[in-house]
Amino acid sequence: MSIKEGKKLGFFAALTMLVGSVVGIGIFFKNGSIFRTTDNNGMTTLLAWIVGGLISLFAAVSFSEIGSMKTGKVSGLAAWNEKAAGKKWGYFVRFNYSFFYFALLTPILGVFVSELLFQFLLVSKAISSMPHVWVHILVGITLMIIALGVNFTSIYVSGWIQAVTSVLKVIPLILAALIGMIMANTHNLKDGKNAFEVGSFSFTSLLASLPLVLFAYDAFLNVGSMSKRIKGGVKTTSKVVFLGMLSITVLYTLIAISSILHNSGFIGSVFSDSLPSNVQEPLTIFTFLFLFISGYGVLNGMSAATVISFNEVVSVNTLFGSKTLKNKFGDKKATILILSLSILFWTLVFAIPSLVLDTDTIVDAFSNFPTLFFFGIYGTTILLYNRKRDEMTNRKINNILYLSMSWMAIGSIFFVVLYQFAYGMTIQLFLDAHGNSHAGLFAPSGIGALQNWQLGTILLAVIPIFAGAPILNLVLAKKFEQNEVIVNTFE
Fold it and tell me: Has residue 176 been placed in a domain?
């Protein structure tokens, strides 16, 4: 095996990169928010996880063919959109995928991992109380810098980190699913009720929960952006995406059932509700240790995709400043500077109000936006590809299977995204303006609670950034660098 080939990820390493990127943060953090959104009704919660899983699976099947398209200087989602709809739309996706999606989510994941770390220290009695949010932001940024540094240095080392963390994170997940279902009739908490006995099914609550559920399934395309770094290229990548997402959908559904049977959105509570009190403390410590490891695995996987995305957009001078900085410092330093400035922008956007309120509700709210916006992009990508599918030479899937799955993905994604923008996260929130938005992780309520009107206002403020930043970037690049950012990356 050549040195070049040896530095690429194999099938198992790529699969663990996918599982490690998707599984971890969402199932642990968002499940509690989903329970609060559904008023702890078990049937609504279960259907939310199932529907979200099916939407993601339909999309994954579609992208397993779309991802087999040959790409040029840019890979993954941005290249697929350019191939399907031209260089202008390709530029819009390429810019936002790096600046809006990766630059916003990566520091947020760092904050989440910090909260897991300190929760582990708290339950193990190494500290007496959770620190204020500024500590989580500082530690989170530090953890993010470490993860990005590893991925800038060696994708091979990052792959091994991902393999180890992915294997370790599965342990508490499988235990939670099995113990929760086997001990379904054992209850130490909440008056012995399971969530199937609480409240009644609500379709609107199910729809309100879907952005949170989709966050837990998101990032499955990160590995699609890494096809050039995977042995076997796009063919292996498409298999990894499909197999990985199918496994994750089954696992999440089983964990949802286990959580519902014990009326808790938190895996640690499933253990304490199922087992004798004398083993609850060591199990809680064990759980949070593995949650921290799991969270770092997610951060590492996201960092890998972030580094690759910014390497590519800087190589084709997509972001303003790329051309000038490359001429002055070289490609690698220019990429680091552009990435750092992009992350700094979004960190200030969510960190300043978080510090003022001293709560993690703002961070949690912002984490849902990249997923919501880009599931819309995913649906659009599939639609654009289907429009030109007859002209493509990469058709790898049975025609009936692909078309049925892809159109179900398009219909369900557009319904969810349009509902959220047109009503769910705007009109509906302002109708109950001062109600609790249910955002937040370890600080979801109290003085720092985020009200519905505040969540809706944040969304309305983010929309013009998503739509207008690519235009501003285009104007600045033309005026100050004489740089045409709308280019054909396949040349």
Answer: yes
